[in-house]
Write a structure and sequence with these properties.
Layout: E1 9-12, E2 15-18, H1 26-40, H2 47-60, H3 65-77, E3 79-81, H4 87-106, H5 112-124, H6 155-159, E4 169-172, H7 177-193, E5 196-204, H8 209-220, E6 225-230, E7 233-239, H9 248-262, E8 268-274, E9 282-287, H10 305-317, E10 321-325, E11 330-332, E12 336-338, E13 342-346, E14 351-357, H11 362-374, E15 380-385, H12 386-389, H13 392-400, H14 402-407, E16 408-411, H15 417-426
Parallel strand pairs: 14-15, 15-16
Antiparallel strand pairs: 1-2, 3-4, 5-7, 5-8, 6-7, 6-12, 8-9, 10-13, 11-12, 13-14
């Protein structure tokens, strides 16, 4: 994802206009290809060497440096470095510093070379430190440079071999040059959404697998949303990170990642209120005509870990209920809709759904309680985070809610069968 200093946009008459690149630009495609090749060829080389090779391309090719630095940032995001602590190196460094301190307090030296020689000589009397080998498997060449204290060489390079600049590259998730340019354009939008007050999506009522998957992404990312249907369109209003006071950075990243799922829709329209610090609010307006192709895979059959865990827990307690990720809308009063987290089916045919409310869902929980207080023909179980329950306003709302007393429970990280099974069994 791009940081704010790498974003390119203009603001005109209250509209914020991302400055997209042309994915068919031959010069940019050639530059992207060069950068990708450098990253592909840099496995097992230090980070500093990779960045130096990348810098040469940035400095010697046409086009604005900010674009090329943005491409480099996106490639770095796809690169895994060996950041594991090197215990052997840490132990050697501690020993060296201890011996250096002892020598300085006991001896006189003619010059720095004399001092360095005696330090190395003293260290050599101990066992020769070796870098611990890595585990076999993917990335078996993870060994770090060997330290040879008996050799009078550049000690600093080996002494600090675990600094970020010296970390070797383990893997790089490559991609095509054209896809990198589309990824760059998508990252421009994502970077703006990190400074979003609210976002509104309009999608056609096709209920294709892609649309259902989009709503799953919405729930899996724990985003706050209000869903309404107007004629043949679904209108989804999503709160932005600037509207929250709880883990806004994490929420902003979730919202930015959600945009990648939007790109899989055949027709979509997006408007968002963007506000940088101490700046006026600007409006971002985009639709499928912006030309950004999907840059992420569409995992239509993917089941998140939390649902797999939930399925296992339920199966261990009862064979009567089956659980699956939410995939259908529940109509609510006032043309609103709910897209639940889970759907459950009993062997008798009884169906119900679960909607979870996390610590940043305060306003949406109160709205849902008010809706369900007036609507009796929907089977929806509400799960509320215990952290959210600590808020006085929420605690009071839950206490007076007749609906929650019958069909609600609280949870810490994931729902437990102890609190959920009594509610499920009351429905049969």
């Amino acid at each position: 994802m791009l940081t704010k200093d790498l974003l390119q946009y203009k603001i005109k008459s209250g509209q914020i206009l991302p400055q997209f690149v042309n994915p068919a630009d031959e010069q940019l495609l050639a530059i992207a290809e060069q950068l990708i090749t450098i990253f592909e060829d840099s496995i097992n080389t230090p980070r500093a060497m990779l960045l130096e090779a990348s810098k040469q391309v940035i400095d010697s090719t046409p086009k604005a440096p900010i674009i090329k630095r943005g491409l480099e940032k996106l490639l770095l995001d796809r690169t895994e470095f060996d950041t594991a602590p090197n215990e052997a190196l840490i132990a050697f460094r501690k020993k060296l510093f201890t011996e250096t301190s002892r020598l300085l307090s006991q001896e006189q030296f003619q010059d720095y070379e004399d001092y360095q020689h005696k330090v190395l000589e003293t260290i050599a009397e101990g066992s020769r430190p070796e870098i611990a080998p890595t585990e076999e498997g993917a990335g078996a060449d993870r060994s770090r440079p060997e330290i040879a204290p008996t050799e009078e060489v550049e000690l600093g390079a080996k002494l600090y071999a675990d600094l970020p600049s010296n970390q070797p590259i383990l893997t790089f998730n490559t991609l095509s040059a054209e896809r990198l340019l589309h990824r760059y354009n998508a990252a421009q939008v994502q970077g703006l959404l990190l400074h979003c007050n609210s976002l509104t999506l309009k999608l056609s009522d096709s209920m294709t697998a892609e649309l259902r998957q989009l709503f799953k992404y919405l729930r899996f990312n724990q985003l706050l949303s209000t869903i309404r249907k107007e004629e043949e369109l679904y209108e989804i209003t999503v709160d932005g990170p600037l509207n929250l006071f709880y883990k806004t950075k994490r929420y902003g990243m979730n919202l930015a990642n959600f945009f990648l799922a939007v790109l899989h829709q055949p027709k979509w329209g997006l408007t968002a209120e963007i506000q940088f610090r101490n700046k006026r609010v600007s409006r971002l307006s985009l639709d499928e005509s912006c030309g950004i192709k999907p840059v992420s895979q569409q995992f239509l059959a993917y089941i998140p870990e939390d649902i797999q865990l939930f399925q296992t827990m339920l199966k261990n307690k009862t064979e009567d209920w089956q659980i699956r990720p939410g995939s259908q809308f529940l109509p609510l009063a006032g043309d609103f809709y709910c897209f639940p987290d889970y759907q459950l089916v009993h062997t008798s045919g009884v169906e119900t759904a679960i909607e979870l409310f996390h610590p940043w869902h305060q306003g949406h929980l109160i709205a849902r309680l008010n809706t369900l207080a007036e609507q009796k023909d929907v089977s929806l179980i509400l799960g509320v985070s215990k952290e959210l329950e600590k808020k006085p306003l929420i605690a009071e709302a839950l206490e007076v809610s007749e609906y929650f007393s019958q069909f609600g429970f609280t949870f810490r990280d994931v729902p437990t069968m102890r609190t959920l099974l009594p509610i499920l069994n009351s429905l049969v």
